[in-house]
Write a structure and sequence with these properties.
InterPro entries: Capsule_polysaccharide_synth
Strand content: 5-15%
Organism: Roseibium limicola
Pfam families: Capsule_synth
Protein name: Capsular biosynthesis protein
Largest sheet: 7 strands, mixed
Order of helices and strands: EHEHEHEHEEHHHHEHHEHEEHEHHEHH
Length: about 450
């Protein structure tokens, strides 16, 4: 686990009233977006609306998604990037910065500059209300989110946004989910000489990861069958069943928004608590992440920790099936900060998070200690949960999907409209400083 948290200049973020008015001249700077035409489509719509747009490409894959006019390429070392982006933002009068994810090394430096000059920062991500939604927040995500965590304020925001159809769905295209990822990363490999100093934000080399992923896809039916056999056996047992979804080792939810250096530390923390405090009849079912390709050998890690903690026979692991199919069996779900926790809450399952996740709201998640959760998990307040989802959808979520052609177009339209109106996090869903940050730092989260 990491040491004491280090503060960043998130404290220098200006309140909404301090930034330039919506009607003033604006200049949007786009950095890396999702592996999709989304950002390029957004740029076209902004240009059509009469505002200036620029894009900095950091690698060949970026150039593939957005070539042509209004773009430049940065080919220097990461060490000179902060000075480069600061000079670009100041020289070009950038008023709005748009990035996908706020913890990539290039994005963090650009966000720091934007904060310093009083520019708006818009951060996109896949939707919390999956699927069929995208996230668009001011300033930051997760621990750095300015979305309120006070139940009373959430209810007030929900009333302000009014009724919203949350059943917004776009059929997912397997090609649009996997194809752009493969093309982007393989292009970065073969075109490395064009951007020799580019540092990717992922932790594994793409080619071996794709080979592992292909092998996992080939074995999908076998993995699902083995998972179904484990679940069928657990259904016949008496006693409470708790769920634990694994998260990716390279996920910034672990790397930046938690005090842990590896998910193996998360596993040891949870299994130790389970061994000491859960009823003797309780079982813990650990499920792999759908995109995990097996670098960490979690079955062996779990087996070793279970043996050390005296849990042999009480902990099961599956590498297949769907998490949602497990919710009817669950007495509770424990997570670091995975969005699987929100899905579980929406299914009525009690949830305990180890760090302040976006959905970690008093009355929604278990607000007691982890040690108490095993014996008396608190169910979510369904009215508050409904208000939270409605408030999300009306302020920091937009309909659309990058895994669907029509969904990409709709996401671009909705994001551009919100940014031009300066209605992101509105009405009333902007709290400064970020309301989860102090609690997170107290746990050692290094933000």
């Amino acid at each position: 686990m990491r040491g004491a948290a280090e503060t960043t200049n998130i404290e220098t973020v200006l309140p909404v009233e301090a930034v330039s008015a919506p009607g003033s001249e604006r200049h949007f700077l786009f950095l890396q977006g999702p592996l999709s035409p989304l950002y390029r489509q957004m740029g076209r719509r902004l240009t059509a609306a009469g505002v200036r747009v620029s894009r900095i490409n950091l690698c060949a894959g970026d150039w593939l998604h957005w070539p042509g006019p209004r773009t430049i390429s940065f080919r220097g070392k990461v060490s000179v990037w902060p000075e480069f982006v600061e000079r670009f933002i100041q020289k070009n009068g950038i008023t709005d910065l748009v990035v996908h994810g706020d913890q990539r090394i290039y994005h963090k430096a650009a966000i720091d500059v934007a904060f310093a000059v009083g520019a708006r920062v818009f951060v996109t991500e896949l939707g919390l209300l999956r699927s069929g939604w995208m996230t668009l927040e001011r300033n930051g995500l997760s621990t750095l989110s300015c979305f309120p965590d006070d139940p009373q304020q959430i209810r007030a925001v929900s009333e302000s946004v009014g009724p919203i159809d949350l059943d917004n769905r776009f059929e997912k295209s397997t090609w649009l989910e996997l194809g752009p990822d493969v093309i982007y990363n393989l292009l970065n490999v073969v075109a490395r000489p064009l951007f020799p100093h580019f540092q990717r934000h992922t932790i594994y080399s793409p080619v071996p990861e794709y080979l592992r992923g292909a092998w996992k896809m080939i074995r999908a039916k076998k993995r699902d069958r083995e998972a179904a056999e484990v679940v069928a056996r657990l259904k016949r047992l008496r006693g409470p069943l708790f769920l634990l979804p694994l998260q990716l080792e390279g996920d910034f939810q672990l790397r930046a928004h938690s005090p842990f250096d590896s998910f193996s530390e998360v596993l040891d923390t949870i299994l130790t608590s389970f061994a000491r405090n859960a009823p003797a009849s309780a079982k813990l079912l650990i499920k792999s992440h759908p995109l995990d390709v097996g670098y960490e050998n979690w079955p062996q890690v779990i087996k070793d920790i279970s043996r050390r903690r005296g849990l042999v026979g009480r902990v099961e692991y599956i590498d297949g099936g769907r998490m949602s199919d497990l919710f009817p069996l669950a007495s509770g779900l424990v997570t670091l900060n995975s969005t699987a926790g929100l899905e579980a809450l929406m299914a009525g399952v009690p949830v305990k998070t180890l760090v302040p996740a976006h959905f970690d709201i008093v009355g929604m998640t278990h607000d007691g200690l982890l040690e108490d959760f095993w014996g008396a998990p608190k169910r979510p307040d369904t009215d508050l949960l409904a208000a939270y989802c409605r408030a999300l959808a009306g302020t920091v979520q937009v309909p659309g999907s990058i895994h669907n052609k029509q969904g990409t177009r709709i996401a671009a339209e909705n994001m551009v409209r919100r940014m031009l109106e300066c209605s992101v996090n509105e009405p009333g869903a902007y709290v400064f400083p970020p309301p989860r940050l102090e609690r997170a730092r107290a746990l050692g989260v290094p933000l």
